[in-house]
Request: fold
Amino acid sequence: MEVREIELRGHIIDSLILPRVFDTIMDMGGDFEVLSFRIGKRRTDPSYARILVKAESREKLDEILGELHRMGATVPEVEEARLEPAPADRVLPEGFYSTTNHPTYVLLDGEWVEVEDIEMDTAIVVEPHRRRARCKPISEIRKGELVVVGQSGIRVVPPERPREASIFEFMRSSVSSEKPVAAIISKVAEAILEVKAQGGKVLAVAGPAVVHTSAASALAWMIRQGYVDVLYAGNALAVHDIEAQLFHTSLGMDVETGKPSEGGHRNHLYAINEVMRAGGIAGLVRSGRLKGGIMYEVVRRGIPYVLAGSIRDDGPLPEVITDVLEAQREMRRHLRGVKLVLMLCTMLHSIAVGNLLPSCVRTICVDINPATVTKLTDRGTAQAMGIVSDVGVFLPMLVEELRRRSAGSSN
Reply:
C-alpha cells in the first residue's frame, strides 16, 4: 500500500472542495484517512484538513494526487519546482505539468512565484534569472525553454464559494430555464457596471443568432455606450450583421417582418462582396455604405475584435483569421484586463474562449439550448453561469436595465 499526506486550506466546506476530494479518492480506487480537521468558526476563518491518501501502487497514488492537486491540495513537504528543457520546438519534456485555469504558483529558490497568463491545458515555462513563470500552449514551446514537470513545487488556488448568498451562485447551481430571468438580468447589469467602475473590461463572444433574433441593435448599443470593450465572433456574425444593415435581411429573412425576402438567400454573399470591394469592414464604414450595426460600432469606437474562421465560412471577410493558432494568439492578446465575459449563443466560440479564461473571470453564458452551458462547464470552464434564454429577449432586457441604472445614477 502506497500512502501520501495532503493538506487543504481555505473555505473547503462552503466551496464543496472537501467532499469532492473524498469522492475523487474513492472514485479512482483509493482510500483515505483524515488525520486532522479544523473548521473555521467565523465567516473569515479558513478551515484546514490533513488527509492520508492511500493506493495500491505508486502509479495509482500519483494519478490520484494529480487530480487532487488540481483541486488545490498540497503536500506538507515543500519542494522546489522541477524544471526540464523542452527537447524541440512544439515538444514538451516527459511528465510536464498540465495547468488548470485556477491561480497557480511555482516555488523557485524558496519563493512562490505566480504563473502569468493562466489558462487550462498549457505548460508552465520558467525564466529563473527573471523569477518569472508563465503559461504557454504546446504550439508556442521552443527548444531549450525550461518547463515545469511533475507536481512538486506547485500550488493551485481554486476559487472559493462566497458565504454570502449570491444570484451568481444560484445561476451556477444548475442549468434550467426555470429561473427569474428579470432578476438575473438585473444582477448581470450590476456586474457589468461594477466591472466598468473598477476599470475592468467586458468581452462579448457573439454568434449569428444575435442578428437572426433581431438583438443586433441591442449589442450595438452596448458597444456604442462603452459597455463592451472587446468582441470575439466568427465570420457569420459579421456577415449577417452587415447583410442586415445593407439589405435588411438575415438568412434571407426580412429583419423587420420576419418574412422571406425574394432572392434574399443571396444577400449574405452580396454583403461579402461589398466588403471585399471596399477592402474590408473599415473601408465599408469609411465609404459611408455601412452606417450602423455591431461591426460599424466596433470600427467607429476602435475597440479590438477577433473574427475566427471555420471550414464552413463563405468568403470569408478579409478580417477573418483563418489560421486557428493565429486566432488563438489574438484572443489571448486581448484578454488582458477582461473581468467579465458575455457568451451569446455560440457554442463553439464559447468553449474555445472558455479554454483561454482564468477561473477568476466572471463568465455568463446565454443560450436557448441548456446543453451549451453544460458542455462549457464539462470542458473545464466551471465558473460559467448559465442563463437559458432567447438572446433576442435577453439583450434588449439587459439594455433596458443598463439604461435604467445609468439614468438613475445621473439623477
Notes: Residues 167-410 form a domain with the Rossmann fold fold (CATH 3.40.50.10690). The chain is about 35% helix and 25% strand. Residues 170-175 have pLDDT under 50 and may be disordered.
